[in-house]
Each structure stands twice: as C-alpha cells, then as structure tokens.
Specification:
Radius of gyration: 16 Å
Strand content: 15-25%
Number of helices: 2
C-alpha cells in the first residue's frame, strides 16, 4: 500500500488525475500493488503561489513540464522491480498526460511495517505485543 505524492507545475485537475492514474497503474503492473490501494496526494503548482525548481542534473534536460513523484512504501522490492516501476511510470505519464519522460522525477522512500497507521490510531501491519500483524501480507 504505497503512499504517493505527485507535484506538477502549471497543471490542471485533468492532468493531475492522469498522472495519478499513470503512477497507480505502474505500481499495479510492476510491484503488485492491489488496484484498489490508491492513496495519493496530487498537487498542482501555478508558478506564483507555489512552484517547483529543477535543474539539468546528470544531463537530463528538464523544463517546466517537471513532475515530482514521491513514493513511500514498505521495503522489500528488488532493484530490478524498482527500475521497471520507474520506467513504467515515465511511459504511462507520457501516454496518459503527455508528460515527457525526461520530466518525470521519481523518489522512493522505504520503511517498515510499524511505520504505518491506516486509521483508528492503529499500526495495522505491525504485530502488537504478543500478537500477529492484522495485515502481514499486505503490500
């Protein structure tokens, strides 16, 4: 159950939704996230009240079509799974939203089961003292 934040410059709600679908579909296809596990924050920046900065780091020439995708998920994916995920996010962002792959900047932050509370003030994935996790096999 990854938690995703997508920030895009100069965008509207239609493009934000398309980017959200692109990321979700890529997560489902490449790392086995259940389709209904969609937890996202989608933020558009107008360049005045909020903006995004970017550079040409590592020779990637980004422009104002930049999209930052921050994914927080539990650890356990292989480097090959992550590479496939990055590639598929860029492909689908282009297909669904017209975002050039060079403008898709993705970061992954991994954590452990106890680092999640999915509501009710509980750590649903983490075993309680002397007990088992309620959703030990969840993504």
């Amino acid at each position: 159950m990854p938690f995703v934040r997508i920030d895009a410059l100069g965008t509207d709600s239609g493009r934000l939704d398309a980017l959200g679908r692109a990321v979700q579909d890529a997560l489902v296809e490449t790392i086995g996230v259940p389709p209904s596990d969609r937890f996202q924050v989608l933020v558009g920046h107008d360049g005045v009240g909020g903006t995004l900065r970017h550079g040409d780091y590592l020779g990637v020439r980004r422009d104002d079509g930049i999209v930052y995708v921050a994914i927080t998920m539990r650890s356990g994916r292989t480097p090959d799974q992550k590479r496939a995920m990055y590639r598929r996010i860029a492909e689908l962002a282009y297909e669904y939203a017209g975002t050039e792959p060079r403008n898709v900047f993705v970061t992954v932050t991994e954590n452990e089961s106890v680092d999640w509370s999915l509501g009710n003030g509980e750590a649903q994935y983490a075993p309680a003292a002397g007990g088992d996790a309620r959703a030990a096999g969840a993504v």
